[in-house]
Design a protein that fits this description.
heterodimer, A: 225 residues, alpha/beta, Transcription Regulator spoIIAA, Pectate Lyase C-like, 6-stranded mixed beta sheet, 15 strands, 18% helix, elongated, B: 266 residues, Rossmann fold, 12 helices
Chain lengths: 225, 266
């Protein structure tokens, strides 16, 4: 991983507080902008609505930085108001692999984020994105999509697609009263329902980790996550 | 002041035109004054299903463009003296030949004179759909017991809500009770569960529909047709009457009903 990062001109990292866009300031400004554009294009719309910050050393010329911001903006990214942690410039990758980042990733800091309350069902063809967490008082029907940078809680049936932690937060969870999704995504993990899905008359919770991907279990209110 | 009702579905081939023809005819036979408007410009069918194809002189676009007066374009169905009219679509134009505002104005004029203005919506969610719902006050959503049709109906209901046509009512068409019983077809509850709208009626699959469509005589006029009976019930429900759902139970209901229809039992 770190080696890869060295070679990349621009890297995009998901953190609990948003996307961290790091650049290698020694490259010329044009290639930097192009590289970011390619990266964002290759994830076509995936980062839409995510908060981001740009870090790197040395300082870029104001025009280049503005170009990078404009690029992010064009792809639907939102500049984060708060500083995103782990300002590890790519120029010195050998200092500390990622102790701090592991620590941050293991806490569910995003629960302090804004939580949206949606009092309707999402019907087929609707696509809703939220910065923060979302609670839906209704169903998410087949071929509807909901995504949030934090947790997604559905007080109804999830039959469409849900993407929690869509800015890269793998600690985000998806809870639904009836969890029958066509697809679940948490951070960069994707899972689909098994073919022979039986009715389960209890709420379920989906979480993810790096090793196993997405895991679904019966929702247990006494278990602290 | 009458009601303007749009019949829509999203998916094609689920029975919008057949339903429009049958409900319109059903309401006319209940003594209501009805006009049917075909907005499927370029792919008109309602005239064929109504058996009025050879009487078209002017069409919807002629009216909206001012080539003729509205009265001239309305085709009278002779089976119902002065109670049932059709405003046919143009076959040589496309969906952009009329604007949403023109549809609104047209519907406002029609509802002055008719108890029910029923609009046959084209398949899809593009301009044709937008035109069809522009002047409507109520919506009927048609679906068949297929996952794809229900998915599209769900999308349509979302779009209707966004267009401030809330609480559409659902008609489930071409249901085959025997297949539902075997678990091979979605049942009514499955569909209501996903769509979360009120049910106006269930129309069973009926071969007579094919015959009546080809002949241009809506099945609702056929006393022997099961689908016709379902459409008669739906028409009565539209007038506000409370009519229980038809018994489509396979064992005794359907057979018993058939026997009754053919006069083999009391």
């Amino acid at each position: 991983m770190p080696n890869e990062a060295v070679q990349q001109l621009v890297s995009i990292k998901g953190t609990p507080n948003g996307l961290l866009i790091q650049y290698n300031g020694h490259a010329n400004s044009k290639t930097l902008v192009n590289d970011l554009n390619n990266k964002l294009n290759s994830r076509d719309g995936f980062f839409k609505g995510a908060k981001y910050r740009i870090y790197g050393a040395p300082e870029l010329a104001a025009t280049t930085l503005n170009e990078l911001h404009a690029m992010c903006h064009n792809h639907g990214l939102v500049l984060s108001e708060i500083d995103i942690e782990i300002p590890q410039p790519i120029s010195k990758p050998k200092a500390e692999p990622s102790l701090t980042s592991t620590k941050i990733l293991n806490t569910r800091t995003h629960i302090q984020e804004k939580t949206h309350l949606i009092q309707k069902s999402l019907r087929s063809g609707t696509e809703e994105h939220f910065g923060g967490n979302v609670v839906i008082l209704g169903d998410v029907n087949p071929s509807a999509e909901v995504s949030a940078t934090g947790d997604i809680i559905i007080m109804g049936a999830l039959k469409g697609t849900a993407h929690a932690g869509c800015a890269g937060n793998i600690n985000a969870v998806i809870v639904a009263y009836k969890l029958h999704p066509s697809q679940l995504r948490i951070a960069n993990k994707i899972a689909r329902s098994p073919e022979n899905l039986s009715e389960r008359p209890y709420p379920e919770l989906a979480y993810a980790n790096e090793e196993d991907g997405i895991i679904i279990e019966k929702y247990n209110p006494n278990k602290r996550r | 002041m009458g009601e303007v009702i749009v019949v829509t579905s999203g998916k094609g081939g689920v029975g919008k035109t057949t339903t429009t023809a049958n409900i319109g005819t059903g309401l006319a036979s209940l003594g209501k004054k009805v006009v049917l408007v075909d907005t499927d410009i370029g792919l008109r069918n309602l005239d064929v299903v109504m058996g009025l194809e050879n009487r078209i002189v002017y069409d919807l676009i002629d009216v909206s463009d001012g080539n003729c007066r509205l009265k001239q374009a309305l085709i009278k169905d002779k089976r119902f003296d002065d109670r049932l009219f059709l405003l046919p679509a143009a076959q040589t134009k496309d969906k952009n030949a009329i604007s949403e505002q023109q549809m609104k104005d047209l519907c406002a004029t029609l509802k002055e004179e008719f108890d029910y203005t029923i609009i046959d919506c084209p398949a899809g969610i593009e301009q044709g759909f937008k035109n069809a719902i522009a002047g409507a006050e109520k919506a009927l959503v048609i679906t068949t017991p297929e996952v794809s049709a229900v998915r599209d109906a769900d999308r349509i209901i979302g779009l209707l809500e966004a267009a401030e046509l809330p609480d559409p009512r659902l008609i489930i068409n071409r249901l085959r009770p025997a297949m539902v019983k075997q678990g091979d077809m979605m049942d009514i509850d499955d569909m209501i569960d996903i769509l979360a709208v009120s049910l106006l009626g269930v129309v069973p699959e009926d071969e007579k529909i094919v015959v009546s469509t080809n002949r241009g005589e809506p099945a609702v006029l056929d006393e022997m047709s099961l689908a016709g009976e379902a459409y008669r019930n739906i028409s009565r429900r539209l007038t506000g009457e409370e009519v229980p759902l038809m018994n489509l139970d396979v064992n005794d209901g359907l057979m018993g009903r058939l026997r009754k229809l053919f006069g083999f039992s009391k």
